[in-house]
From TrEMBL:
HAMAP family: NadE_glutamine_dep (MF_02090). SUPFAM superfamilies: Adenine nucleotide alpha hydrolases-like (SSF52402), Carbon-nitrogen hydrolase (SSF56317). The keyword Glycoprotein does not apply. InterPro entries: C-N_Hydrolase, C-N_Hydrolase_sf, Gln-dep_NAD_synthase, NAD/GMP_synthase, NAD_synthase, Rossmann-like_a/b/a_fold. Homohexamer. GO terms for cellular component: cytosol. It comes from the Eukaryota. One of its GO terms (biological process) is 'de novo' NAD+ biosynthetic process from L-tryptophan. In the C-terminal section; belongs to the NAD synthetase family. This is Glutamine-dependent NAD(+) synthetase. It comes from Eudyptes chrysocome (Western rockhopper penguin). Keywords: ATP-binding, Ligase, NAD, Nucleotide-binding.
Length: 694
């Protein structure tokens, strides 16, 4: 009959410029696909070189090595008798394109350049690539000699075309094209394309997965067809975590779901589907068929190959499944944990060091490391040889097997409580108890000697001794004395990260973890070059509200009872003197705003693109039950003053896991000045005028 097609898609943990490792993972995915009977294999976007090459795309070396890897794939027996669809950059007539290269049995069938480039948020594809703007147009691409020697071809089709096999028609989309309002699959489907293949480089954002799934299912709900999505997974060298979620959908329903968070470097999904189900689904949609009769046809590349077998009546086909989404708390537990694991093993360090204050933020960071240890033990238990090999390298023991998360945590995670005369016994006890429950190697130390020495140097030079406000000092003195403590902690964190393992007779150094949340960064409520200055920060893109919910999740799922007292305590920096042995300083009082308000300001500023006046106009309606217009004006002005005064701190912000679309990360996501006119005179005058009118 020739109606049951078997196709494969995958999620690969590729690494930018790791051509050898990327090639090995591609081969593994092809082997798995073939072993399960697949006749077509789809890989992630730019999988040969890795998606996150950034300005390395400008280098001719990146193009050269990509073609060298392609030659290895073409000449290998492993790629015979299966259509392979791989991603790489290609230079055509001196213009660089983000391409799919589709080949079969040592012959390139088509090079399909990306039409809609991702250029918002974290994406900068227009910096490195040019979109293919010639719809339904194909040109000759002259192959480099290294490929000609393998394929015997001088030229191959390059452009916007589809593949016509002996039994069906297949078209390609690349990542952003699915999200575009005029997605190619719409007109390809009207022109008779039955299988749509999308290779993606889509990163994790909290609560985003359902949007991607809905887009894939809706792509075939109105038009019929089979939709295959491949995606990058893991940390390929920067702040993003690509979250897999490879999937296969037919006629608007999911038939195969890949994992969103996993330590498996290679994950392959294979599905057998009946083409007649697509044809019968389309046959009864009269509006679709009327539109199809008028569509401009795509160029078709004929392929003497079938994705089905001639005798397939008894071949079982896949049935629809219900997609299971993670809760935001599960996403926080798993996504940053997988990102930390990739960063740890690829940086070849021996573990992490975290200044653990006994507050929510550092405790949440510790819980993410513990979750990572938990995931490593589960992966090893499930037989993941790659994870076991990496764990052995990290702990420098060729016979080691991580079985207990607490025991593994003890080997690779050091926590450090850095007390001062302003620290309470309560936070010291909370940090110690949490460290015991997760199993970290815990250090207690006191920084007063170092703080007094630094202030003493200042006093000797100037003849003046700064004092806290409670002892009669000015606000300038008060802030300076707080900052000295914070910066001493950063210096000590790096010293202990470098030498703690040396004192324990163990090799290697530790990565320092930061623990400033996205809201504090937005407000600038942190000391520049304090403990927020670290190697990486797993919670820097997560809101305080979500972190509190995550802490509750850890209490329930990891039985970390020490977190209960941490949850109930008011957030405090503990940098000002205690009053009767108790903490008098709280974060929200210092900031002049609540964390809940900060989260709203952040979303309006970044996601809603609101300046001071627009934010005021939105909030007088949002908060009309709780604030007068004059109170709203005061709050908005205070936020923008503090945001602009402290924006310079974002230029040195520790690289953080990207999880929120209102992140103030200055690196490439939130591009703003860092020297503002902090009076906002014109903008605030507009607000005042509106307040008076109201």
């Amino acid at each position: 009959m020739g109606r049951a097609v078997t196709v494969a898609t995958c999620a690969l943990n590729q690494w930018a410029l790791d051509f050898e490792g990327n090639l090995e993972r591609i081969f593994r995915s092809i082997d798995i696909a073939k072993s399960q009977g697949a006749r077509y294999r789809l890989g992630p976007e730019l999988e040969i070189c890795g998606y996150g090459c950034s300005d390395h795309y400008y280098e001719s070396d990146t193009l050269l090595h990509s073609f060298q890897v392609l030659a290895k794939l073409l000449e290998s027996p492993a790629t015979q008798d299966i259509i392979c669809d791989v991603g790489m950059p290609v230079l055509h007539r001196n213009v660089r394109y983000n391409c799919r290269v589709i080949f079969l049995n040592k012959k390139i069938l088509l090079i399909r350049p990306k039409i809609s480039l991702a250029n918002a948020g974290n994406y900068r594809e227009l910096r490195w690539f040019t979109p293919w703007n010639k719809a339904r147009h194909v040109e000759e691409y002259f192959l480099p000699r290294i490929i000609q020697e393998v394929t015997g071809q001088e030229t191959v089709p390059f452009g916007d075309a589809v593949l016509a096999t002996k039994d069906t028609c297949l078209g390609a989309e690349i990542c952003e094209e699915l999200w575009a309002p005029n997605s190619p699959h719409i007109e390809m489907g009207l022109d008779g394309v039955e299988i749509f293949a999308n290779s993606s480089g889509s990163h994790h954002v909290l609560r985003k997965a359902h949007t991607r799934v809905d887009l894939v299912n809706s792509a075939t709900a109105k038009n019929g067809g089979i939709y295959i999505l491949a995606n990058q997974k893991g940390c390929d060298g920067d702040r993003l975590y690509y979250d897999g979620c490879a999937m296969i959908s037919m006629n608007g329903e999911t038939v195969a779901q890949g994992s969103q968070f996993s330590l498996d470097d290679v994950e392959v999904l294979v599905a057998t589907l009946d083409l007649e189900d697509v044809r019968s689904y389309r046959a009864e949609i009269s509006s679709r068929n009327l539109a199809a009769s008028k569509v401009d046809p795509y160029p078709r590349v004929k392929v003497n190959f079938a994705l089905s077998c001639s005798d397939d009546v008894a071949v079982p086909t896949c049935m629809p499944i219900q997609w299971r989404h993670h809760s935001p708390e599960e996403e926080i537990s798993l996504g940053p944990a997988c990102w930390l694991w990739d960063y740890l093993r690829r940086s070849k360090q021996a573990g992490f060091l975290l200044p653990l204050s006994g507050g929510i933020d550092s405790s949440a960071t510790a819980c993410i490391v513990y979750s990572m240890c938990h995931q490593v033990c589960l992966a090893v238990k499930d037989g993941n040889a790659d994870v076991l090999a990496d764990a052995r390298k990290i702990v420098n023991d060729e016979t080691y097997v991580p079985e207990d998360p607490r025991e593994f945590c003890k080997r690779i995670f050091t926590t450090c409580y850095m007390a001062s005369e302003n620290s309470s016994q309560d936070t010291c006890n909370r940090a110690k108890l949490l460290a015991e429950q997760i199993g970290s190697y815990h250090i207690n130390l006191n920084i007063d000697t170092a703080v007094k020495a630094i202030v003493g140097i200042f006093s000797v030079v100037t003849g003046r001794t700064p004092r806290f406000c409670v002892y009669g000092g000015s606000s300038r003195e008060n802030l300076a004395l707080q900052n000295v403590q914070a910066r001493v902690r950063m210096v000590l964190a790096y010293l202990f990260a470098q030498l703690t393992l040396w004192t324990r007779g163990m090799p290697g150094g530790l990565l320092v973890l930061g623990s400033a949340n996205v809201d504090e960064s937005l407000r600038g409520y942190l000391t520049k070059y304090d403990c927020s200055s670290a190697d990486i920060n797993p919670i820097g893109g997560i809101s305080k509200t979500d972190l509190k919910n995550f802490i509750q999740y850890c209490i329930e799922n990891f039985q970390l009872t020490a977190l209960r007292s941490i949850m109930s305590a008011p957030p405090t920096a503990e940098l000002e003197p205690l009053v009767d042995g108790q903490v008098a300083q709280t974060d929200e009082a210092d900031m002049g705003m609540t964390y809940a308000e900060l989260s709203i300001y952040g979303k309006l500023r970044k996601i809603a693109k609101a300046g001071p006046y627009s934010m005021f106009c939105k909030l007088i309606n949002m908060w009309k039950e709780i604030c007068t217009p004059r109170e709203v004006a005061s709050k908005v002005k205070h936020f923008f003053r503090m945001y602009s005064v402290n924006r310079h701190k974002m230029t040195t912000l520790t690289p953080s896991y990207h999880a929120e679309n209102y992140s103030p990360d200055d690196n490439r996501f939130d591009l703003r000045p860092f020297l503002y006119n902090t009076t906002w005179s014109w903008q605030f005058r507009c607000i005042d005028k509106q307040v008076n009118a109201l």
